[in-house]
Amino acid sequence: MDPKSSIFIYLDFDGVLHQDGEPAIDENGRLCKNPNLFCWLDDLQHVLNDFEDVRIIVSSDWRRLFEDETLIRLLGNVGSRFSGVVECTNSERYVEILQDASNRKIIYWLAIDDHESIEVAAPSDERLIFCRPDKGIGELAKQEELKQKIRALQKKIQSP
User: Fold this and answer.
1) Pick from 145, 159, 72: which is nearest to 110 by CA?
2) What is the CATH number of the domain that holds 108?
3) Is the residue at 2 inside a domain?
4) pLDDT tens across 76-120, in order?
5) pTM exceeds 0.70, yes or no
6) pLDDT digits 0-9 by tens, 31-62
7) Residue 47, class by beta-carbon neighbours within 10 Å (0-12 exposed, 13-18 middle, 19+ buried)?
8) 77 is a domain residue
9) Domain residues for 137?
10) How many domains does the chain contain in total?
């Protein structure tokens, strides 16, 4: 995928694909068997079904806990869209994403996150979709917002 003409989504897990605070890791550092984890993944998949070329970069802190292969598996049917993880480290997710997009020379991107830095920056950066940590992408309004923003980016790519 060409970073100058493709759309990428920076994707958080906690508070986006499932409610923030869901038990995920046991005392041995292994993934818990929690049916509430990734409960909104189907909602994301449903949105992305109409946009075959959209790629995913994991911005979630889960990127520090698991190898790429595990992240791909956790992403289920959207795992084939996996294009890596955010390599930058900062206390603010927004700064990490900006730096990663710059390093990769990505022009067209969106971020779906419940991180405080995304909430603060969202009113002034249309690429950001802030999710409520208890609703995530399971909220219909957020799904519609994602669709609209992907369509807007597609128009930018198509116009000379």
Assistant:
1) 145
2) 3.40.50
3) no
4) 999 999 999 999 888 899 999 999 999 999 999 999 999 999 999
5) yes
6) 888 999 999 999 999 999 999 999 999 999 99
7) buried
8) yes
9) 7-158
10) 1
